[in-house]
Amino acid sequence: MNNYSSLVSILLKDEALGNPQHERVLQLGPTPEYLVTHAGFPALDIAIQAKVIGKAHFDHGIKASLIQRLPEILATPKSVFRSANVHQVDSVVVLTYEVKGVAPIIVPIRKNRQVGRGQYFNLVGSIYAKEGPDPSVKWARQGLKII
Which of 51, 48, 47, 46 lies closest to 12 in space, CA to CA? Predict the structure, then answer.
């Protein structure tokens, strides 16, 4: 088990015991090359805040094992789309091969975000199952597909 995976376990256990560590930031490693090349992301580390991990697991029902594999999951996306939200031009949505039931798991990522007074990261904003019809068809029709 790597450091990221171990930290996810610890954070989820602490939150389940009523001791959340929402201020923590976990680094997943370098931003995948496809985001740098095709989506204009800077070559920063990708990171996720502990509060996002807790929300994904406890509110969205994403299994801890999936969250622990997030670096590998992001390394091989099914597709990548620009955000449909006109106020988030610095964001992409990574459509993964993972599913919850029949709903695909998506991972929105924002580029070049400062965390606190510290470092800049490409930051995972959420992890959740996209309910309803296959979103990739709609997003592609809207011209949002990057890869």
Answer: 51
* pLDDT by position in tens, the chain (length 147): 579 999 999 999 999 999 999 999 999 999 999 999 999 999 999 999 999 999 999 999 999 999 999 999 999 999 999 998 888 889 999 999 999 999 999 999 999 999 988 899 999 999 999 998 889 999 999 999 999
Residue with tokens 């580390």: 45
SS3 of residue 37 by DSSP? helix
Asked if 52 and 70 touch (Cβ cutoff 8 Å), the reply is: no
For residue 35, what is the enclosing H or E element? Answer: helix 33-39
What pTM value is reported for the model? Answer: 0.94
Rounded Cα distance, 72 and 111, in Å? 19
Concatenating the DSSP letter of every residue in 39-97 gives H---SPEEEEEHHHHHIIIIIT---HHHHHTHHHHHHS-SEEEE-S-TT-TTEEEEEEE
Q: Which amino acid is at 32?
A: P
CA-based nearest residue to 119, from 40, 39, 37, 46: 46
